[in-house]
Amino acid sequence: MADLSPSVVPDLSGFPVTPADIQAAAESIHGAVVETPCSYSRTLSNICGCDLWLKFENLQFTSSFKERGALNRLNALTPEERARGVVAMSAGNHAQGVAYHARRLGIPATIVMPVGTPMVKVENTRHHGAEVVVTGATLEEAAAFARSHGEARGMIFVHPYDDPLVIAGQGTVGLEILKAVPELDTLVVPIGGGGLISGIAIAAKSLKPSLRILGVEAWLYPSMYNAIHGGNLPARGDTLAEGIAVKSPGKITTEIVRGLVDDIALVNETELERAVATLIAIEKTVVEGAGAAGLAAIMSDPARFAGEKVGLVLSGGNIDTRLIASVLTRELAREGRLTQLSLDIPDRPGQLAAVASLLAEAGANIIEVSHQRTFSDLPAKATLLQLVIETRDSAHLDEVMAKLGASGLSARCT
Known about the structure:
This protein is of the alpha/beta class. Helices cover 43% and strands 18% of the residues. The protein has 16 helices and 14 strands. Helix 9 runs parallel beside helix 11 (251-260).
């Protein structure tokens, strides 16, 4: 990557998006897009060991920053182009941004979404009035269909990230962050196709060249990391951060990232889940996996940010409630607050009551109970008792296990 030490002022002249374009985008979308809060988090700052400000782009009307670029692109259409309509491909957030503002502006819109897009994003896009076509196993396959579908009907293709007008619109996030907190040392931004971080990088570096910009991708989809570092890490599988699950980053965005972004961090699925759960528990805000990627990077490597003033973009909040429930319960299990136990007990009256009594004495709460008599290798006069219990933390769980063991019960966490 380029030499981006504080003493080096980056050259912004060679990019197809300029600081003036971003200022123009801010004027274009003003009043139709929310200038979201950029708030200091005392608790997360204490946890992470740095001064942390959160940019709540999940509080946009469609719960994502994508509205900014979509609207800037739509505002640039001629009357004739508006009459022809637009087509876009998206895993959800760009879709909703295009659909919402297209309806507001009276522009017909068709959105192509890949198979496996969370239903909350599909239904919200339909709710905003767009025609939705769900096809393609990947975003790239959906894009190919969208292009051919649009060309056959004379529609304008609105790219989710590799378009100068879209990039300029996303860059308005950077203007707002530095307006709110000009003293920042570092900005941490999720990367999918690269539109958001490209726009922010141009805006931020023009205002404060010394600012460090760190991109974050999911380990399962390290496409921009590969492009910048010449790597060949595989991009595959289901990630909680489907909003940044892009196999091929944009050509325009790759060049901007190569020139202006200081580094790219990769986060795994456990770190993403932990970040989503932490934001709900501490900030009382719902953020999707992609939107929580920045916090995941900070929490997984706090030494990298120690003592700094850090800005973090919560890029979106569109996540299924079922998935939220799964993430929260899995995090409870990791913290030792929710545990499944297996015990081998004699199959006779009073045994379950005895176990329940011991757990009650230890202060544990029983959530689920099941007996398994048939599908086990225990003797016929024994049964496998499986329990899900709730404890205060991992230390309390250790106390519970010790009490069961002292009573002669063979209990194991499963």
